[in-house]
Amino acid sequence: MTARAKRRRDLEPNLEMATSELLLALADDDFVLGFADSEWTGIAPHLEEDVAMSSMAQDELGHAAAYYGLLADLVDADPDRIAYDRPADGFRHCRLVDHGRGDWARTMARRWLYDTANAVRLEALAGSTSRPLAELVVKVRREETYHLLHDEAWLERLARHDGEPRRRLVEALELVGPDAPSVLAPLRSEALLVDAGIQPLPGTQLLSQWAARIEPVLGRLGLDLPAPSPAALDPATARSEHGPAFTWLWTEFSSVRALDPQATW
Predict the structure, then answer these.
(1) 230 C-beta neighbours (distance < 10 Å), count
(2) If you average pLDDT over residues 137-152, what whole number do you get?
(3) How far, in Å, CA of 176 to CA of 103, rounded?
(4) pTM > 0.85
């Protein structure tokens, strides 16, 4: 019996579906964020940021590929088909990364909110009873640590420069902030995942931990985060409703694959 077959046999059908939901959420979050941030290549504020954003976007796409790989092993599928052959409405990324690129302040606000929430999520998943997931998370966290340092430096820089930089940051937080909790919103199958230890902590606890981490930073900088939108906390809408910005992005990243779906990538 292959290792893949053994992993599938050891999971009950409902738990396999729940684990698939978690892996797809993790993968789609990083996949969409990575492609969105790659749009800054060549047009970032200066050369160093051009390199930094390109590198972080590449990291996110690499993390997504690894999550898709775990999912493909679990459901006996092709990871490239999972990533590129789904329709736009088949993606399950959070509402926060569904926002379009916007200006530099919006990108930094989105990245900081996402990376702080993702850090809380990954810290919990490092203790997952799923050994392949826990081992992958340890590797992902190493790179994500540097992403968060980069985000925090820009948040400070924009917040402490009065005038247009701070104004744009405040506007960005007002726009994307209500959807920020969607990163940690409970999944439909969360109860199964928590009971099995695959997701060690429920979304409500992760959200509380995240709030405890970001509130002191926002307070020190004199910034506010709007109240969450109801859709960002509802398992039925936090990852299933996508707007025109994502439809355009999906068309971009699926266009080459669509030229020859049978090709080996």
Answers:
(1) 10
(2) 95
(3) 12
(4) yes
At 116-128, the pLDDT tens digits run 999 999 999 999 9
What is the residue type of 92?
R
Q: Please, where are the H alpha helices in 177-264?
A: 190-196, 203-221, 230-233, 244-259
Cα(162)–Cα(174) distance, rounded to whole angstroms?
A: 17
261 vs 24, 184, 255, CA distance in Å?
Answer: 21, 33, 10
Q: Tens of pLDDT along 41-72? A: 888 888 889 899 999 999 999 999 999 999 99
Closest by CA to 235, choosing from 14, 64, 21, is 21
Spatial distance between the Cα atoms of 20 and 74, rounded to a whole number of angstroms: 7
Task: Give the pLDDT band (50/70/90) at residue 22.
Answer: very high
Question: How far apart are the C-alpha atoms of 216 and 44, rounded to whole Å?
Answer: 29
* CA angle in degrees (0–180, nearest 5) for 90-240-112: 110
CA–CA dist 78, 11 (Å, integer) = 20
Give the closest residue to 249 by CA, choosing from 31, 52, 45.
31
Confidence of residue 13 (pLDDT cuts 50, 70, 90): confident
Task: State which H helix or E strand residue 138 sits in.
Answer: helix 131-159
Q: 239, 236, 237, 245: which is closest to 175 by C-alpha?
A: 245
